Amino acid sequence: MRRSPQETALSARKISRRAMLLGGAQLGFMGLLGLRMRYMQVEQADEFRLMAEDNRIKVRLLPPARGLLYDRNGVALAENEQTFRIVIRKEDANQIDQVLTELEHLINLPKSEQERVREGLRKAGPSAPVTIADRLSWEAFSAVAANGPALPGVTPEVGLTRHYPLGEDFAHTVGYVRAVTRDKLDKMEVIDPIYRIPDFQIGMTGVETTLEDQLKGKAGTLRVEQNARGRIIRELDRQEGIPGSNIQLTFDHKMQNFVQARLAGESAAAVILDIETGDVMAAGSTPAFDPNQFVRGISVADYSALLENKYRPLPSKSVQGAYPPGSTFKMVTALAALEAGVVAPDETVRCVGHTEVGGRRFHCWKRAGHGNVNLVGSLRHSCDVYYYEMAQRAGIEKIAEMGRKLGLGESYGLPLPGMSSGLMPDKQWKLQKRGAEWVIGDSLNASIGQGFVLTTPMQLAVMTARIASGREVIPRLVKSIDGVEQEILGGDKLDINENMLRAVRQGMYEVTNSSRGTAYRSRIADATLQMAGKTGTSQVRNKVVNNNDVPWEERDHALFVSYAPYDNPRYAVSVVVEHGGGGSSTAAPIARDLMLFALHGSVPPLDSYPSSQRGTIRERFRTLPLRDDPEADTEKSRA
Q1: Is residue 540 within 8 Å of 579, Cβ to Cβ?
Q2: Short-list 530, 529, 510, 528, CA closest to 520
Q3: What is the C-alpha separation between 592 and 598, in angstroms, rounded?
Q4: Residues in contact with 551: Cβ distance below 8 Å, sequence separation at least 6, in sequence order
């Protein structure tokens, strides 16, 4: 059926209106789309550009240089050496097996090391680097760098590693560092991001661990641009880390070396203390170990050998070893009795070789007895019976109080881990720790440095320095930090009558300078440098033994404490030789050598010794394993 002209015109008008509406809608949508595109391309351009940058820019932490450690004369004790290594990151790596195969040919990477890298990548986060090889030669490092395009994800790095130029001398005091381990991280309450850096070294023992916060420094940052394959295209920005603080310790490296050399062959410890400042000039412990082995990664065999050594080379005996002080404690008992007013310096006590208390005999080391002895004579002869009597008169509370005045029973807060505070027992201690009452026999044993009393070589040196000076000498180990001198603590006058101290000092003088003194053979011949001291022999088992008839582990400890010069004290020395036998025969000769070295600043001249001993002394010094020139060694290691 044909449409009329009117119907056709009406239909055309309807179509035109629909087309216009549809076209308008399309134009409106296009306009809105255009406006949105303009908004995104112009007004949001910076935001989207930053997002795009983030997809190809990586920010990495840069390890700072660890602070250096020096002795009091500026000789390096711990320094940083340049090292070459290569690392790989999971997020940047692909075809890991192919990369490791290529490295096997370039740097001789063993199969076992390849598997270690694969395991490390499985456990590591996407951006966490895994070390492939460390301490590479320059040739191997250059080969990896030159083949970079064929090794996606592999980054050559130049880093620093710790080195101890004086080796064993400071192993126990300076300590050592190692790469941060998972166990170490798990023990941290708050983990500094710096410890996430691959193989970042952290202090494990000694000053390296106690002063970690000052030594570690602050990490820097590196922004680099990478391509789609993870290869670095260019470095965009670098902010170097802040190095750790340089710390100067109070040690004298020559004195420390002499101490270690003189103690060689013994299981022993010694401390040399500057009486005026409290500076620890040397703190030796033998045998020692090479800390550089631990930095590089000590083998199981070498570590087992250290653990199984009966002389215990790993602990620092000078501050961690706690020993019965034996007769070196008798000055404490004497001063306690004098201060309590229960004895006068010239009053005598008769020694018949023993004292009987409560039906039990307490013997003097000299079974025949010493006869009548006063305070000075009791120290000169080291008469036990005199001190048994003083213990009964003064009591343990007075003795313990005097021991604490002289620095026993505390660790002084030195920056050394695991320091023992020893033990200065009293009635309350025994009741709390042993659940038993104090008995008179405990006091008698304590009066001669046996029983429950325990001291460290560091404490014995402090005790001796306080007796010599009459002042509160407090040991100091850190001399300066970044050139800023550290405070000298203590120095106040002790609350001990000076006349009482003089009487005790006179007794110590006669120990080494009277022909009847127990350490007369270890006297100093130079009249201007005469030494005062006290011998000590402490039992390790609850019975008297003949040291020649029992195994080494059952022999008595040998001890000696001293200060010199007698009329103007400069240094205090303590020596403990584990299972060394007698203090007069073993420890006293060592202490004299150490004291003379401290006073002269070098190997002692022979005229400081009695003429009859000079031939023996000369031979002894010829065989000492001393460093020929520590300064030259250090300069060589720096170069």
Answers
A1: yes
A2: 510
A3: 10
A4: none
Distance between CA atoms of 165 and 638, rounded to whole angstroms?
9
* Cα–Cα distance for residue pair 589/609, rounded to 1 Å: 11
Strands 371-373 and 220-226: unpaired
pLDDT for the residue numbered 224: 75
Which residues touch 6 (CB under 8 Å, ≥6 apart)? none
Q: Which two tokens stand for residue 350?
A: 């008769």
Query: What's the Rg (C-alpha) of the chain?
Result: 37
Longest dimension (CA), the chain: 157
CA distance readout (Å), 193 to 142, 199, 216: 30, 13, 12
Q: Answer whether 154's CB lies under 8 Å from 86's CB.
A: yes
DSSP 454: B
Classify each residue of 504-524 as buried b or exposed e, where b means 16 or more C-beta atoms within 10 Å of its C-beta.
bbbbbbbbbbbeebbbbebbb
C-alpha 504/C-alpha 400 separation (Å) is 17
Buried b (16+ CB within 10 A) or exposed e, 352-372: ebbbebeeeebebbeeebbee
Q: What is the signed CA dihedral for 522, 524, 529, 530, rounded to 10 degrees?
A: 60
**Is 84 in contact with 137 (CB distance < 8 Å)?**
yes
| Res. 7: pLDDT tops 50 | yes
Helices 138-146 and 96-107, packing angle to 10 deg: 140
Residues 6+ apart with CB under 8 A from 203: 175, 176, 177, 209, 210, 211, 212, 215
The tokens describing 139, both together, are 């040739």
Look up the pTM and report it: 0.85
**Burial letters for 179-192: b for 16+ Cβ neighbours within 10 Å, e otherwise?**
bbeeeeeeeeeeeb
Phi, psi of 236 (to 5 degrees): -95, -40
CA angle centred on 420, ends 416 and 421, rounded to 5°: 115
**Residue 614 half-sphere exposure toward CB, CA atoms < 13 A:** 10
Active site residue 382: no
The residue whose two tokens read 């002042």 is: 471
Q: What confidence tens digit (pLDDT) does each residue in 92-122 have?
A: 677 788 888 888 778 888 888 888 888 877 7
Tell me the per-residue pLDDT of 459-477, one tens digit each, with 9 for 90 and over. 999 999 999 999 999 999 9
- Residue of 245, 285, 318, 327 marked catalytic: 327
Total residues found in the chain within this entry: 639
Q: Which residue has the tokens 């030494």?
A: 531
Of 635, 634, 636, 575, whose CA–CA distance to 259 is shortest?
Answer: 575
pLDDT digits (tens, 9 = 90+) for 462-517: 999 999 999 999 999 999 999 999 999 999 999 999 999 999 999 999 999 999 99
